[in-house]
Design a protein that fits this description.
With 296 residues, the protein is an alpha+beta fold. The protein has 7 helices and 12 strands. Strand 2 (29-32) and strand 3 form a beta hairpin.
Length: 296
């Protein structure tokens, strides 16, 4: 029977990305903070399509994802390593493609100690894996990236300053925990991993959390709530401040990485007094941002 995918298309235009999106697979455990954590990741897998072909063999994408997951079954692996294996396998299966791209997201829940009371709370975090594979000469080469996304909070410095001016006549006003509006903020970091380098995503989570006005917790007693509000109000930040702190944290934490190592930062602030959200993005290489940091 004639393979319709192999037929010449009506318009001979090559396509950059064609594939499957939203494939759920039961990966049992992934590594985070040196411990295995359960997750149910979602995969997107793409290849390029030459101008001479009408369509991809989509079933091969699903087969690659399922086969790779089977190989990693019951092992505490990392999403970026799983994605890298899939990206390479896609080019082995699709001999007509010259490049592939796989990404995955999976939620884990990790143990965290509440500042103040020391209570144990369990916090959600999104782990992210990305990988690219491409043909070079007669071989297949690959790149991968690790990422994490976690929520925290910010206190608005602009509104805080306005309130401070309103009560300037009060004594010792600078030490009062003055009111301002607060936001739930999601921070995300994606860091490309040079060959031979490995990162525990908990380092990315710590950078994000330390860049906020305060981290947030699922479990808080009354005293914890009060301490967290005071901590946030005494450390007011815009989304722009958060993302700059994230970039600074990356440069300081991974200063030994090659200067060409690339990263992406993303902050989304769910505004409490508006009906819209505020977003900040930044991407670049470690080398170019090193020049922008103040000397130690």
């Amino acid at each position: 029977m004639e393979d319709i995918h192999e037929k010449k298309p009506s318009f001979s235009i090559p396509l950059q990305y064609v594939g499957v999106k939203g494939v759920k697979m039961p990966v049992a455990f992934v590594k985070f903070g040196g411990k295995p954590h359960y997750t149910l990741p979602v995969f997107d897998a793409y290849i390029n399509l030459p101008s001479t072909m009408k369509g991809i063999h989509a079933s091969r994408h699903y087969e690659v994802i399922a086969e790779t997951i089977s190989h990693f079954a019951m092992k505490a692996g990392k999403l970026e390593d799983i994605c890298e294996s899939m990206a390479i396998r896609l080019l082995e299966k699709h001999t007509y493609a010259s490049q592939s791209y796989v990404r995955a997201k999976g939620e884990i829940v990790f143990e965290s100690k509440v500042e103040g009371s020391g209570l144990i709370s369990f916090e959600p975090c999104i782990l992210i894996g990305r990988a690219w594979a491409f043909r070079k000469g007669g071989s297949i080469e690959s790149r991968k990236a690790v990422g994490a996304s976690v929520k925290g909070m910010t206190a608005c410095p602009c509104a805080l300053e306005y309130v401070r001016e309103k009560v300037r006549s009060l004594s010792d006003v600078e030490n009062l925990p003055l009111a301002t509006h607060v936001q739930r903020v999601t921070g995300t970091i994606i860091l490309e991993l040079p060959k031979g380098y490995d990162v525990d995503a908990i380092k990315l989570v710590k950078i994000i959390q330390s860049s906020m006005s305060s981290p947030t917790y699922g479990l808080l007693k009354r005293s914890d709530e009060g301490e967290m509000i005071c901590r946030a109000v005494s450390n007011p930040k815009f989304a722009e401040d958060v993302i700059r702190s994230m970039v600074k944290g990356i440069i300081e934490e991974f200063k030994e990485y090659p200067d060409w190592t690339t990263f992406e930062c993303y902050v989304r602030s769910e505004e409490s007094i508006h009906k819209h959200d505020l977003v900040a993005k930044q991407k670049g290489s470690i080398g170019e941002f090193k020049l922008g940091l103040p000397p130690a």
